[in-house]
Amino acid sequence: MRKKGLTKGVIGLNLTSMIDVVFLLLIYFMVATEFKTSEAAFAMDLPERVQQGAILLDDEPLIILVDSAGDSQSNLRLNVLGPWGDMQTPEELRAFLYKNIADGFGRQGLFTINHPIVIRPTNDAHWEHVLAVYNAVAHATYTNVTLDEPVQ
Fold first, then answer.
1. Domain span at residue 74?
2. Residue 134 in contact with residue 147, Cβ under 8 Å?
3. Are the beta carbons of 93 and 66 closer than 8 angstroms?
4. How far apart are CA 18 and CA 48, in angstroms?
5. Closest CA to 63 of 147, 2, 139
6. What is the DSSP string of 71-99?
7. What is the rounded distance in angstroms from the CA atom of residue 90 to the CA atom of residue 108?
């Protein structure tokens, strides 16, 4: 007599409905999620500064007088009104202005980049000298620069 072998049954899961549920949850979370920028998502409590803040001057304009004694670049005479010391060349003026920028990010200076600067030439000043002073101010990254009427 032959014994009939028992056939083993296959046990399995129907994954179709499970995949449907996963996709529905994925769509739900994608629609319901609010995406924020990293600054808003991670609020930080920063410590207060203990060092003294920058001393900024009022918005009274910094006036630069330009005069010419001759045609060459060495004959340029400039004078910055106020207690700022002597500056003979546009390069010295640029270095002075660049050194005194206060940007609010650690640079301790006297002027912001939009501090008003007035370039006031004399009647005898050559245009090249006035332009050299203007370029020095612009290279120091100041943005509020005005050319004034010539003075006597």
1. 62-147
2. yes
3. no
4. 53
5. 147
6. SSGGGEEEEESSS-----SHHHHHHHHHH
7. 22
Question: Edge-to-edge strand order for the sheet containing 117-121?
Answer: 76-80, 62-68, 117-121, 145-147
pTM over 0.85: no
Q: What is the pLDDT of residues 16-48, one digit of tens each?
A: 889 999 999 999 999 988 776 555 555 666 666
Residue 30 within any structural domain of the chain: no
Place of tokens 């900024």: 56
Domain membership flag for residue 97:
yes
**Residue 42: DSSP 8-state:** S
- Give the chain's domain count: 1
Structural domain includes residue 45: no
What is the residue whose two structure tokens read 């072998």? 5
Report the CATH number that the domain containing residue 118 is assigned in CATH.
Answer: 3.30.420
